[in-house]
Write a structure and sequence with these properties.
This protein is α/β, with parallel strands linked by helices and 449 residues long. It has twelve helices and 23 strands. Strand 10 and strand 11 form a beta hairpin.
């Protein structure tokens, strides 16, 4: 008779281990903190262990020189640091309908040309996945499909068959046989990830796991899920249109400063080679419109920032932002009132980043403030220029990285100049007009329509 795998119950509050579940932890007295934990290792630790075999780093590097698996998407390979590392576990998260399954099906189709690939769906049947592949024109005889929600079956398939890439869609829909809780619970997500990770690393298989997100936008499930994988990718953007941005939150095999930009079309997600030109294609030069030179990873991106300022009809002015942090916006508005002659206490202020792009870097401060001032005074820039720079609470313009790349992108798209902080390099760039503080910037570059 096959021996059933042992299950223990661990308190998430004090960490004590118990053999049976109870509503209250006997050790610390907390309620509803005992969680199931499944032993998925093939053999338990025996008493009286033996010394491990150790090797020099140079020897391991020489013998374990595995080539990366190319996904067929240059932008994605750049985000990953050069492609999929054999034996790595990757978590992909994003809002519902953002395009996670579409992107992964494209990756699976391209990768299947060079390496055995399996696409496992726990949310759809194999027939439904094949229908989506036909719609996207990604039908391949080399790509294998499977549908199932049992983690044990998926792990055994990975262990016994020679797949180079396995995609699981999604981790919240599969469950271990020996765990009694429902799929998507903390114990199921934790133990399923552990079991699949062990199977993938034992066979040197690339494992890509799809993860759901909460209403707040964070990855659903325990934080242990993000710690246990090698890379965490986040697909962001507006599900109804605009660009989709794929960022790395964690990457053990490459940089976390890279990003891939896609556009959803009838045949799937298409990489955007020149997003700046597409974002500025319908721009109208008017008050409240400023072009920001921002960075998406290591690539420059020009986006339009629009501002609308109206006298409030209520007792408390409203401030709203699309694609920008509202807390940062309120801080900049307070700084503008204190350091300039702008009176914004009775104004409703709205900020919009065109194209569904989210801007988080501090280099957007100067462009945001100039857009607000431009809309408030019905003025516009006196030159066709891009704007970037971080602002301090004293109104000073601070240095930002990658100034040369921002300036080069502005030149490529036909702008006449750039407005930003002083360059630390000795070789000054005549294309860049340096600004000392926000007050002098507004007085110098804004003029009446």
């Amino acid at each position: 008779m096959v021996r059933k795998k042992s299950v223990s119950y661990v308190c998430s509050s004090c960490g004590s281990v118990h053999s049976s579940w109870s509503g209250k932890c006997p050790q610390c007295g907390e309620w509803s903190t005992l969680e199931e934990k499944l032993e998925v290792s093939e053999r338990s630790i025996k008493s009286g262990g033996k010394p491990m075999q150790v090797s020099a780093v140079s020897e391991v590097a020489r013998t374990e020189n595995h080539k990366r698996i190319i996904s067929g998407d240059k932008q994605l390979d750049n985000v990953l640091g050069g492609g999929f590392v054999p034996g790595s576990v990757i978590l992909l998260a994003g809002q519902p309908g953002i395009g996670k399954s579409t992107l992964l099906l494209q990756i699976a189709h391209n990768a299947a040309e060079n390496t055995p690939t399996l696409y496992v769906s726990g949310e759809e049947s194999a027939h439904q996945v094949a229908m989506r592949a036909s719609r996207l024109n990604r039908v391949s005889k080399k790509l294998k499909l499977a549908s199932g929600t049992v983690t044990d079956d998926i792990a055994r398939t990975i262990t016994e068959q020679n797949f180079g890439l396995v995609i699981i869609d999604s981790i919240q829909t599969i469950a271990c046989n020996d765990i009694n809780s429902a799929a998507g619970s903390v114990s199921q997500i934790t133990n399923s990830t552990q079991m699949l990770t062990q199977a993938a690393k034992a066979r040197n298989t690339v494992l890509v796991i799809v993860g759901h997100v909460t209403k707040q936008g964070s990855i659903a499930g325990p934080k242990l899920l993000e710690h246990s994988v090698d890379s965490v990718l986040q697909l962001e953007g507006d599900r109804y249109g605009g660009f989709k941005v794929l960022r790395t939150i964690k990457n053990r095999f490459g940089s976390t400063n890279e990003a891939a930009i896609y556009e959803m079309q009838d045949k799937g997600l298409r990489p955007v080679t020149n997003p700046s030109a597409a974002l500025l294609e319908e721009r109208q030069i008017t008050d409240g419109s400023i072009v920001l030179a921002t960075m998406e990873g290591s690539r420059p991106l020009l986006v339009e920032i629009q501002s609308l300022v109206n006298t409030t009809s209520y007792g408390y002015p409203k401030r709203a932002a699309s694609g920008y942090d509202l807390t940062r916006l309120n801080l900049l508005i307070a700084m503008l009132e204190r350091r300039t002659k702008l009176s914004l206490a009775d104004k409703d202020i709205y900020i919009n980043i065109v194209g569904g792009i989210s801007v988080t870097e501090p280099a957007a401060d100067l462009a945001i403030c100039m857009a607000i001032a431009s809309a408030c005074k019905a003025m516009k820039l006196n030159k066709n220029a891009v704007v970037f720079g971080e602002l301090g609470l004293s109104g000073e313009v601070r240095h930002v990285p990658h100034i040369d790349k921002r300036v080069a992108e502005a030149k490529k798209l036909g702008f006449e100049g750039a407005i930003g902080p002083k360059m630390k390099l000795t070789n000054k760039n005549s294309f860049l007009t340096e600004v000392k503080d926000i007050k002098s910037g507004l007085n110098t570059f804004l003029e009446k329509n």
